[in-house]
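Researcher: Please predict.
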Amino acid sequence: MNATGQSAVFGRRKEPHTVIIARGNEIRHFTIRPWLAAFIGSAVAAIAIGYLLATSYLVLRDDLIGATTARQARMQQAYEDRISALRAQVDRITSRQLLDQQLMETKVSELLERQTQLSQRHGRLGPLLERAETDVGTVPSDSPAAAAKPDKHAEVTGSISQPQNYAVASLSANLGAADTRPFSLWSTRTDPLPSDSAADRADRLFVSINQSLKSIENEQLTRINTLADNAYKSADAIQQALQAAGLPVDSDFGKNESDVGGPLIPLDSSMIFDSKVKELDEALDTLDQLKKEARQLPLANPAPGHSVTSPFGVRTDPILGTAALHSGMDFRAPVGMEAKVTAPGIVTKAGWNGGYGRMVEVDHGNGFATRYGHLSEIDVTVGEKLDAGAVIGKTGSSGRSTGPHLHYEVRHNGEAIDPLRFLSVGKKVAQYL
């Protein structure tokens, strides 16, 4: 009653939920409080939401795993591609470096071979050039090579070994420090740049050494050609002077050998050098032969610096005053002056000989002989071998003479020849002998 009264007083009262369960004759009922209903509803909602979430996860898990796996596969493939590209680049760089290394080693070997060849040439050229300078002597004034090249073979053959050895060694040392960048072996750039590598420096050094060796080779060949030309010119000058004077020349120099032939065989540098050396050697042999022949002839002046008082030929006899043949030349000379032989030979006469007075006759070979008359003293004996310029006696006025002088004769096969021909030739070829 009280509850009913209170409900009536304060208004309509909310009744709690009641659950009635009937089973046969049994009836049960439960009163559900609001907080319990709220709790049960919340629990059911939570279970439903959890179930939905679990179901969604199970449904989407495979897609998520597949996407993650695909992303990882793509990343792995990208890394593998990058590694392959880097490995290929390393292989290319290594191959290029090995190729450059092989090329540089080949070029260094060529340089060493050329240097060895130049050193061998230096050994061959040394004695030959000394002989050439001794035989050829001063270059004739009309030769343009005289002003172009000094007469010193040291400029050609010197400074070969040490500088080139150092340069080649430097080039070889640079091979170990060469980087992986490609470079050209025939680069001609010589100005240094901040970005130059060891390979670039080695390349320029190789070009410099190659040019230096080439310059030395050209200088050697030029020097050989110059000396050979000078030798031929000297030999030609001697031959022309002798032939112009009607003197015999037995040398084969100057023969016309136009009837020749054969296959064309290209020459390399070593063959060119050998041919030039052979040509120089032949030129020197020819010059030596002509010099030897000229030196056997009485070309020197028996009384240099003294005037001729009577030439060769027809003259008025100084004693009889009639025309007579003078078979020699008379040189003004004081009593006691040394009389010297004009060419090497063997004394065939040494003593008093009629109008010659004290006379010395010297045989020079090939039918040539010289006589020295009116001597005041004889200092040689018959059979004595004399060198050119040897003293045979002293001048005087013995025999058929009007005063002190030197009577000089040149004879060929016993026939008197004008000595002036020989003296003229001697002046022309003196610079070559």
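Model: The longest strand covers residues 368-378.
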